[in-house]
From TrEMBL:
Organism listed in the record: Ectopseudomonas guguanensis
NCBIfam families tied to this protein: AcOrn-deacetyl (TIGR01892), PRK05111.1 (NF003474)
Required co-factors: Zn(2+)
UniProt GO molecular function: acetylornithine deacetylase activity; metal ion binding
The protein's name in its UniProt record: Acetylornithine deacetylase
Matches recorded under PANTHER family: ACETYLORNITHINE DEACETYLASE (PTHR43808)
Superkingdom in the source lineage: Bacteria
InterPro entries: AcOrn-deacetyl, ArgE/DapE_CS, Bact_exopeptidase_dim_dom, Peptidase_M20, Peptidase_M20_dimer, Peptidase_M20A
Pfam families: M20_dimer (PF07687), Peptidase_M20 (PF01546)
Length: 388
């Protein structure tokens, strides 16, 4: 049976549901996407290894050629949830609207796999000096469990890794970390007519928020990186829930917040600073304060400006490497010894939105770029590259 065309593969990936979400009613297996990729890549001669990370969730490592070094083309196989009523087209069907391909995952980022396959197809009759690995992970949009599992296993992947997240075909060598945290305060309820009857969790939380805002101001004075559009770390007080009635002293209150550290800021040191502010407040208000992450953090990421991959991508794209505020799987691949870069054809402005799309004008440049990267890392002997 002949391999599907590029457009057919792109459409099949969009049509394979793979929502990753912390809410069980939305969360889905990514097996349909992994099975499609494994079948196509297997037919092209790739050795395909599927790894179960949790029930219904899988990573795919598909390799062509063998030996150390080589190139990893990486992406996540899942999407965010969607509200079909807000879409003007079927989100699970590839639609051509003007100069765009529209569909869930077209930009962020299942379409990248079809582009990678299209790039490598005409090269497979040449001898690969170093391997090409196409990596598809699970649950990037929620827990990043797939990338975390790879990092924890410690298995080397390649000399260089390109993650095809939406960057408008501009290389990204830095991004902020992502920390989503929660503080729970347990006080004691009582009749509001006599404050001595209870310990207000809401009033304690007011002081907690004051301390968090103070830490934010301190960190923004101490840390600055002008390569980012927002050059300081940010801390957003996202949602708060507490109390149940105006005439009761508030017995419980919870706050969830988002902290985006710059490269060079250690998440555990940030948490230690927060805990240091919370302990005195618990004593002052006679309440219990519990603090911890909602999810394991995504560490900040930075690849050296003089790295081979960065210099090569800058030359091939004509753009200097930049920084973004959103998080990716880059720090996990970097931990495995890969020079790592984030570089893909989509635009982050339309990701996670109704009408997510990929500009048709980006397809040919992306295929050409990926083909050049494969040729550099896989078809040329490493000693020849080093002599250039």
């Amino acid at each position: 049976m002949p391999l599907p065309s590029f457009r057919e593969q792109f459409a099949a990936l969009i049509a394979a549901p793979s929502v990753s979400c912390t809410q069980p009613n939305w969360d889905q297996s990514n097996a349909p996407v992994i099975e499609l990729l494994a079948a196509w890549l297997g037919d092209l001669g790739f050795t395909c290894e599927t790894q179960q990370i949790t029930p219904g969730k899988f990573n795919l490592l598909a390799s062509y050629g063998s030996g150390p070094g080589g190139l990893v083309l990486a992406g996540h196989s899942d999407t965010v949830p969607f509200d079909a009523a807000l879409w003007q087209t079927d989100p699970l069907k590839l639609s051509e609207v003007g100069d765009r391909w529209v569909g869930l995952g077209s930009c962020d980022m299942k379409g990248f796999f079809a582009l990678a396959i299209e790039a490598v197809r005409p090269l497979l009759d040449q001898p690969f000096q170093q391997p090409l690995l196409i990596l598809a992970t699970c649950d990037e949009e929620s827990s990043m469990a797939g990338a975390r599992a790879l990092a924890e296993a410690g298995r080397p992947l390649g000399r260089a890794a390109v993650i095809g997240e939406p960057t408008g075909l501009k290389p990204i060598r830095l991004h902020k970390g992502v920390m989503m945290e929660r503080i729970d305060i347990l006080g004691r309820s009582g009749h509001s007519s006599d404050p001595a009857l209870g310990h207000s969790a809401l009033e304690a939380m007011q002081d907690v928020m004051g301390e968090l805002r103070g830490l934010r101001a301190q960190w923004q004075r101490e840390f600055n990186n002008p390569q980012f559009g927002v050059p300081q770390p940010t801390l957003n007080l996202g949602c708060i829930h507490g109390g149940d009635n105006p005439n009761r002293i508030c017995g419980q209150c919870a706050l969830e917040f988002d902290l985006r550290p710059l490269p060079g800021m250690d998440p555990e040191q940030l948490r230690a600073a927060i805990r240091g502010k919370l302990q005195p407040l618990a004593l002052k208000h006679q309440v219990r304060i519990d603090y911890g992450p909602l999810f394991p953090e995504v560490p900040p990421f930075e690849q050296r400006a003089d790295a081979e991959l960065v210099r090569l991508a800058e030359r091939l794209t004509g753009h200097a490497a930049q920084a973004v505020a959103f998080g990716t799987e880059a720090p996990y691949l970097q931990r495995l010894g890969c020079e790592t870069l984030v570089l893909g054809p989509g635009d982050i402005d339309c990701a996670h939105q109704p009408g997510e799309h990929l500009e048709l004008a980006r397809i040919e440049p992306t295929v050409a770029l990926l083909r050049q990267l494969i040729q550099h890392y896989c078809l040329t002997r490493s000693e020849d590259v080093q002599r250039r």
